């Protein structure tokens, strides 16, 4: 508009464009050198490539979920745990897929920790009674 004052930056930007115009569709600022334009093209290519890589990874993730049907792996339906003859299960506790059995066989007591999903014994903890010291 006539009569408006312009800042020095606006005046500089209003000047003639760079001698070599940018390729069609390419962003370029006035006074941008050829090296700067090459860097812009390189960075644009990198950003587009990384975006495509991100989308490909997301596609692989979604495909694997769809192929699985969104279900967790099937668990063993039956599990056999050998116990000593005369052993008695005194108690049990389930925490997610971990099952803890408190077992007594004669005077010996132990805790068996099992993974119910994989159907295997994770740990056997033998409990030993400690005698109290006389006061």
Please explain how this structure is put together:
Helices cover 30% and strands 24% of the residues. The chain has helices spanning 8-13, 34-68; strands spanning 88-95, 98-105, 108-115, 120-127. The protein has 135 residues and is of the alpha+beta class. The chain has two domains: 24-68; 76-135. The protein has a four-stranded antiparallel β-sheet with strand order 1-2-3-4, with no helix packed on it. The protein has two helices and four strands, in the order H-H-E-E-E-E.
What portion of residues is helical? 25-40%
- What string, H for helix and E for strand, traces the elements in order? HHEEEE
What is the terminal-to-terminal distance?
102 Å
Please tally the β strands and state the result.
Answer: 4
Strand order of the largest sheet: 1-2-3-4
Count of folded domains: 2
> With helices defined by DSSP (H or I, 4 residues minimum), what is the helix count?
2
Q: Report the structural category.
A: alpha+beta
Can you give the mean pLDDT? 79
Q: Which spans have pLDDT < 50 for at least 5 consecutive residues?
A: 16-20
Compute the gyration radius: what is it?
A: 36 Å
Beta-strand proportion: 15-25%
Largest sheet: 4 strands, antiparallel
Offer a few descriptive terms.
alpha+beta, 2 helices, four-stranded antiparallel sheet, 2 domains, 135 residues, elongated
Topology (SSEs and partners):
Blueprint: H1 8-13, H2 34-68, E1 88-95, E2 98-105, E3 108-115, E4 120-127
Antiparallel strand pairs: 1-2, 2-3, 3-4
In summary, what is this structure?
The chain has 135 residues and is an alpha+beta fold. The protein has two helices and four strands. Helices cover 30% and strands 24% of the residues.
